[in-house]
Every structure is written in C-alpha cells, then in structure tokens.
Amino acid sequence: MVVLQVLEKGVMGQLPGKPSALVVVSDNNLAKQLTESLHIQGYKIVRAPLARDCYSAWSSPERFSLCVIDQHLEDQPGHVLAKYLADNKAINVVLFGNLSDAELRLGLYRAGVSLLLREPEGTAEIIAAIEAMATPVQHSSSPKPAAVLPLPTNASGKIPWQVKALQRELIAPDGQIVALTRNEVKVCLALADAPTEPTNREALTLSLYGRFDPSANRALDAVIKRLRQKIVAKISAVDPITTHYGEGHRFTAPIIAVNQ
C-alpha cells in the first residue's frame, strides 16, 4: 500500500505556488523535525516513510523542488532511492546518514545527487546545508530601471555595503551584487545593526534557529563560512567578516540595511 502524506499547517497551507519537498524518512521523530523546519522555509511537504512508497507513486520528478532522503530507511538503503530519483531527473536530491564509502559517494554525485551529508548533527545542520545550496528565486517580471540616486555614505565618507532583505542581496561599495540565502540575510542584518562592535553568537544563533545549542552553533558556523566564501569569490576582496573569540562576529567595513 502506498503511504504518502501531504503535510500542511495553518496559514502556510493557504499560500499558492509553494515549492514541494519530498521527505523520505522512516523515523517519525526525525521526520517531524524536518517537516517543521522545511515548513518554516516555505515548502509544502510530502512525506514517505519507506522507499517503496516512492517507487509506486513516482510519476513526475519535476513536481518536487527538493528531495530529502535518510540513508537508514526501514526497507532499503536510502542511496538506492536517491540514485533512482536522480536518474529520473529529480532536482536537489539530498541524502544524509552514514555515507563513509567514498566510492559510493562518488557514484551518487556522478548520478546527479546534489548533496551528501555524512552523519549530520541534527536537523539544524541539514537545513543549513540545504539553504547554503539553494539559489534565490529569480523573478520573471521585467526589471525596474535603476533609479539615478547617489549611494548613501556613512560619517567617514566611505560608501557602505548594503543589505537588501527583500531581494536577498548584499551590494558591495563598487556595485557588485552577492546573492544571499534567507539565513545569510539574517546574519548580514544582525551585523549591520551593530556595525561598531561584535554581534554576540548567541544572539545570532537565536535569530536564525530560535535556540542556542551545539547543533545550532555548528549550523551558524556553516552559514558564516558560506557567506565569507561568497563575498571573497564574487568581490575578490579581503574577507570583511571578522571573528572575535569570546565575543562574536563583526562586519569590519561600513554596512547598512536598505529597506527596498
């Protein structure tokens, strides 16, 4: 018997055009945690507790924007299903669990699996990794003509970096744009709120995940590392985010939040 559960909650179920995520996890507690976290990220969830449920119901791989699979399913190893979905042109296939076999991992990547997480430390790390690989949505409407306005300057006369939350963009002083994930936006906004002093890691972690524990702390490290890599790769500049041990993080260049 096919057991596919479409899970919706509250107002989230009323939003049209939401992306769908397939969650294939046998453990009910883990499935609940992943479902709640992905709901917060804006996904409509279809949960399958067993691999065979997917084989019997699968018809159009493109219906899902994300497929999250546990390696430790009750009826077969998750990597078998992950390869099947990737072979059938599914996008953003994520597999997590005990994946110590390097040859297996290489074969899965070659088959088209997007992300392999080896023994992640809880749901927060899985969600952080998914966010890091996500590409911001590109709107199809015609771009608005740029307004001919001078960039704001701070008291020192230097043109600051700008965080645009709605567009999920970080704009360098020379006008180059770095695309951001939701959590990267939150980090940039928090750093812009306190430009002259380090932002406490506990405050950052609570802002992103609603809790402060070792798992959330590691997830924050992953977000900041990815943000640093993006800035350096795109702008070819010195990393402007500094770590003050025992205090937190600071954006050393002038930075402001722009509400537009």
CATH superfamily of the largest domain: Response regulator
Order of helices and strands: EEHEHEHEHEHEEEHEHHEEE
Distance between the termini: 50 Å
Overall pLDDT = 79
Strand content: 15-25%
Proportion of residues in helical segments:
25-40%
Number of domains: 2
| Net shape | elongated
The CATH C-level name of the largest domain is: Alpha Beta
Q: How many β-strands, per DSSP?
A: 13
CATH architecture assignment of the largest domain: 3-Layer(aba) Sandwich
Q: Which structural class should the secondary elements be placed in?
A: alpha/beta
Radius of gyration from CA coordinates = 20 Å
* CATH topology name of the largest domain: Rossmann fold
Number of helices: 8
Largest sheet: 6 strands, mixed
Residue stretches low in confidence (pLDDT < 50, at least 5 long) are: 6-16, 135-142, 144-156
- Across the major sheet, the strand order is 1-3-2-4-5-6
Short synopsis of the structure:
The protein is of the alpha/beta class and 260 residues long. It is built from 8 helices and 13 strands. Helix content is 36%, strand content 20%.
Structure write-up:
The protein has 260 residues and is of the alpha/beta class. Helix content is 36%, strand content 20%. It has a 6-stranded mixed beta sheet with strand order 1-3-2-4-5-6, sandwiched between helices. A 4-stranded mixed beta sheet has the order 9-8-7-13, with helices on one face. A 3-stranded antiparallel beta sheet has the order 10-12-11.
Q: Helix and strand layout, with pairings?
A:
Layout: E1 5-7, E2 20-24, H1 28-40, E3 44-48, H2 51-57, E4 66-70, H3 78-87, E5 93-97, H4 102-111, E6 115-118, H5 123-133, E7 161-164, E8 169-171, E9 177-179, H6 182-193, E10 199-200, H7 201-209, H8 214-235, E11 241-244, E12 248-251, E13 255-258
Parallel strand pairs: 2-3, 2-4, 4-5, 5-6, 7-13
Antiparallel strand pairs: 1-3, 7-8, 8-9, 10-12, 11-12
Helix pairs in contact: 1-5, 5-8
